[in-house]
Design a protein that fits this description.
heterodimer; A: 76% helix; 0% strand; globular; B: alpha/beta
């Protein structure tokens, strides 16, 4: 019997690590939200008393869905190009994808602030459109859904591309040639053969981007408006400004529950465990 | 078949090896962590001072921090915050006090005194001969007075054309159309809302909170940005993101006179605050901290700060070292003082907690 479990021994450090640094803090957060052993759900009652917090959660889900969609639409062709081009070109192109990942999130967010602002030092977009005669007066790109979507898509895009790329690399391109050879046109080949084969990548990429977007805080806080308030910003507010730790913890727990539900739904319908292993 | 699948003898060896390695590396990590933890001892000759960042903290650096380091050899480590009372309380409550001296608002001073967050000030060390009596408190000493004023872009309102002169004008969307910004903080913003609604400055307190929020409702959709840190409003005006905003008077002055940014401000209906040095409870460098406070309160140092950023000194003797041009720009100047409201820190310290909750849900609602 014991021998069988021996196979789990190498996992022990990882298990210990996640118990100490993941499970324990998580339990503490839950304890904080119910006031320790008292199991006082007053913070939860407070959250559901108004529709305010639910609205913010729905808002967070909507923004995250939008970002995921944008990342998928923009990332898919790039990943395709990466997986089909020559090795030399691929190395250069991959650098363009990875380089932004290595740049600080704050720097990237501030860069968008400069580019999108009305005028002043930056405002390149507005200046270009003005000079080109497309617009008569500067448009408002900042502090709204537009600026948040642009910046968050830019930040999360590499994750989508790399996930898609990993799956696309494992697809045998010759299958496509065979399909064409057998008389299917380009569209049919794409929708019937290529798209289904890349589906695991689409799901995994969307899942990662969506989950990352749900917890986003700095970007919407810096360049979003009042209407782009996301749940993580509310948690920060409760913890840092209002000192209502129990309420902040309750909000975190609710976010965690939402994420878990989404994970379960994804897992039931697509089998996420298969995705992590790629296409076999 | 079974043998093929498991390859018993070999695999056990391999896993055991791996496990041993993992164990050893874990041990090494723990030892390293322990050593690191020990090495994080308190540095003796050093204090951490937290202020508000931006142009203000730069001025404090030149006027207080660097001269103090030069004359005493005590190192100053700087931190900055956006006047979040919560951060101070969290630190003291958790007994992990990372800041020794903090620059706080009056409401924070009163709340912190009540909640036992500060060390008492040792007045045998600080020379208070010339310090205003209003700036002396058992748990804090006033360092300067600053004002939140109405600032506007002179690109949007060139000199000679009508510009907003009070909060009623700020609220008047028809007369002055355009995007605006206000501080994401009810303190002073509620005062502005009431002034805009026609409340007389001398009958502001206690604030009619409901009326203030109703007044804010009228302008809510024209506030495109709610600023958080002190440098933001000036940046927003410089970038022409907004045409007018509330802002700290010193930041506007620095931007206008030193960085030549086309902005201006009005003293009328500004809200003036005192700022305080406090020493956090549990600070390990109390003696050095009070030494710093005494240093920063000297007339010479106070005058140096006012010259760099026009905030009013609490040490009256400092006024003798400041020339007339700067004196005119100080919030404490009699002419400017007449037009302003002084914030009622006591009222805020008692009502802040409930108002901030209301304020946040108001911001989120449509």
């Amino acid at each position: 019997m014991l021998r069988r479990y021996r196979i789990l021994l190498p996992l022990l450090p990882a298990i210990i690590f996640s118990v100490i640094f993941f499970c324990y803090p998580l339990i503490r957060i839950f304890a904080l939200s119910v006031d320790g052993y008292k199991f006082d759900f007053v913070s939860y009652a407070e959250i559901f008393k108004t529709t305010l917090y639910l609205k913010v959660i729905v808002n967070t889900l909507l923004i995250s869905t939008l970002i995921t969609f944008l990342c998928l639409v923009l990332g898919y062709p790039v990943a395709y190009l990466l997986s089909t081009t020559t090795k030399k070109k691929r190395n250069i192109l991959i650098l363009f994808v990875i380089l932004p990942l290595w740049t600080s999130l704050l720097v990237r967010t501030y860069a968008w602030m400069v580019i999108l602002q009305q005028s002043g030092m930056g405002g390149q977009v507005n200046q270009f459109l003005l000079k080109a005669g497309i617009i008569d007066e500067p448009l408002t790109y900042m502090y709204n859904l537009f600026s948040v979507s642009v910046a968050m898509t830019h930040v999360l895009l590499p994750l989508m591309i790399l996930t898609l790329y990993a799956v696309m690399r494992s697809i045998n391109i010759e299958i496509l040639l065979i399909s064409r050879n057998l008389g299917a046109n380009r569209f049919r080949t794409f929708f019937k053969i290529y798209l289904p084969l890349t589906l695991p990548g689409i799901i995994a990429g969307s899942f990662i981007v969506f989950m990352m977007a749900l917890g986003y805080f700095i970007t919407p806080a810096l360049i979003g408006g009042r209407r782009q308030t996301m749940i993580a910003m509310l948690i920060d507010n409760q913890i840092n400004y209002l000192l209502n730790w129990s309420f902040g913890a309750a909000l975190s727990v609710i976010l965690l529950i939402v994420v878990t539900i989404i994970y379960i739904v994804f897992n039931r319908s697509f089998g996420l465990d298969k995705i992590w292993g790629g296409l076999r | 078949m079974k043998q093929l699948l498991y390859q018993k003898t070999n695999s056990v060896k391999w896993y055991t090896k791996f496990y041993r390695m993992a164990f050893v590396s874990l041990l090494v990590t723990i030892i390293f962590a322990a050593c690191f933890g020990c090495s994080q001892k308190d540095v003796e000759n050093e204090i951490v001072i937290c202020s508000w960042g931006g142009a203000f903290q730069e001025a404090q650096r030149d006027a207080f921090f660097e001269p103090f380091e030069e004359s005493t050899g005590i190192k100053i480590v700087e931190a900055s915050y956006n006047a979040e009372y919560g951060k101070i309380k969290a630190m003291v409550d958790a007994k992990k006090v990372m800041w020794d001296v903090v620059d706080v608002e009056t409401s924070a001073l009163f709340r912190g005194t009540k909640e036992d967050l500060f060390e008492p000030i040792d007045y045998t060390i600080v020379d208070t001969t010339h310090v205003l009596s209003e700036a002396i408190h058992p748990f804090g000493i006033g360092t300067d007075f600053f004002s939140t004023v109405l600032a506007y872009s002179t690109n949007a309102f060139p000199p000679g054309t009508p510009h907003p002169r009070n909060w009623k004008d700020f609220w008047d969307i028809k007369k002055f159309p355009g995007r605006r910004s206000l501080r994401k903080d009810p303190r002073s913003t509620l005062e502005f809302a009431l002034l805009a609604d026609g409340v007389q400055p001398d009958s502001l307190y206690p604030l009619d909170v409901e009326r203030a929020f109703r007044s804010l409702d009228r302008i809510k959709n024209h506030i495109s940005v709610w600023w958080v840190s002190g440098h933001q409003p000036v940046q927003l005006l410089a970038d022409e993101e907004v045409i007018m905003t509330s802002a700290f008077n010193g930041r506007v002055w620095v931007a206008k006179n030193i960085d030549a940014i086309p902005i201006d401000m009005v003293w009328n209906q500004a809200v003036m605050y005192p700022e305080w040095w406090v020493i956090l409870k549990g600070s390990k460098h109390k003696k050095l901290a009070i030494k710093f406070i005494a240093f920063a309160l000297s007339s010479e140092r106070q005058a140096a700060l006012s010259k760099l950023i026009p905030y009013g000194p609490t040490n009256r003797d400092a006024l003798n070292y400041i020339d007339n041009k700067i004196l005119m720009e100080l919030p404490t100047n009699t002419k400017n003082l007449e037009m302003q409201v002084i914030i009622d820190g006591r009222w805020w310290s008692e009502n802040e907690a409930s108002i901030i909750g209301k304020w946040n849900s108001w911001l989120l609602s449509k």
